[in-house]
Specification:
The chain has two domains: about 130 residues, no CATH class; about 100 residues. It contains one helix and 17 strands. The chain is globular and about 65 Å long. It starts with about 25 loop residues before the first strand and ends with a strand. The strands form four sheets. It has an eleven-stranded antiparallel sheet, with no helix packed on it. By secondary structure, the protein is an all-beta fold. The protein is about 0% helix and about 55% strand.
């Protein structure tokens, strides 16, 4: 038996067992507006049980096993996708999610220990856009964009605030060139954008987001041998992969070149 230690920053949970279950119905439809366009929608109820780490993690995390409930999400989505012509394909969707009992990490400012708790209720809504255009047999461009808001609805002291670490928007643009001389390979230029997000539930600190430019290319020698090259963060901007409310962050990669070869058996 593992002893139950409930003081200090070396906490241990006594042996225990947790049983969780939930019903998740889904209703959806797809309707052809024409030969080249389809609309779709879905109403679903989903859930996610707490992870073993959220329930039983030892160390600086207090006992979260007792009373921690599954996260419940009711969602509604509508969208349309299709081909405007032989060159242009598109997709657009809007969604609304209502989350209940979402699990968040709460820090005890006096002891430094933390605890996982169900927040009450949150709401999430946004739109997603995507498009591809084939300029010619060798030149193609693609675009993806999403905009979203994630807010507390029923959490004492935070009603109306946005959830932390949730970017307001994310975008990606790629242009691919596939000349015959690359024998099936391509040259790709990419622009990747991650928008601003809050670092704390109080919404007092933010990370401004970042924009990166990347290049990559590959070349096939026969059917099995491939040469490739990548250049990440072409402009060598300073950015962060992760940031938190305490000022800790993981630096993003600086300008990085990579070369390699791959053989498929």
């Amino acid at each position: 038996m593992t002893p139950d230690i409930d003081e200090g920053l070396h906490l241990r949970l006594d042996d225990t067992e947790v049983d969780l279950d939930h019903l998740s119905p889904k209703f959806s439809y797809t309707y052809a507006l024409s030969e080249n366009a389809v609309t779709y929608g879905a109403l679903r109820r989903g859930f996610r049980v707490p992870t073993s780490g959220q329930l039983f993690r030892s160390g600086e995390t207090e006992d979260s096993a007792e009373g921690l409930e599954p996260e419940i999400v009711n969602s509604l989505e509508f969208g349309v996708r299709g081909d405007a012509n032989s060159k242009w394909a598109y997709e657009a969707a809007v969604y609304y999610l209502q989350g209940k009992d979402e699990i968040v990490r709460v820090v005890n400012q006096d002891t430094g220990s933390s605890r996982n708790e169900n927040t009450g209720e949150t709401k999430h809504y946004g739109l997603e856009l995507g498009s591809t255009y084939q300029f010619s047999s060798t030149l193609r461009a693609s675009f993806a964009y999403s905009y979203s808001k994630h807010k507390f609805v029923d959490r004492e002291g935070f009603d109306g605030n946005e959830l932390q670490l949730a970017p307001h928007d994310v975008a990606n643009i790629q242009v691919a060139y596939e000349p015959d001389l690359l024998q099936g390979g391509q040259l790709v230029a990419e622009w990747a954008h991650q928008g601003e997000y809050f670092l704390d539930d109080e919404n007092t600190e933010t990370y401004a987001g970042h924009r990166l430019y990347n290049l990559r290319a590959n070349y096939y020698v026969g059917l099995q041998f491939e040469l490739y090259a990548k250049l990440f963060n072409v402009t060598d901007v300073k950015w962060a992969e992760t940031v938190n409310e305490f000022g800790n962050f993981t630096p993003g990669r600086p300008r990085t070149a990579q070369f390699g070869m791959k053989y498929t058996f």
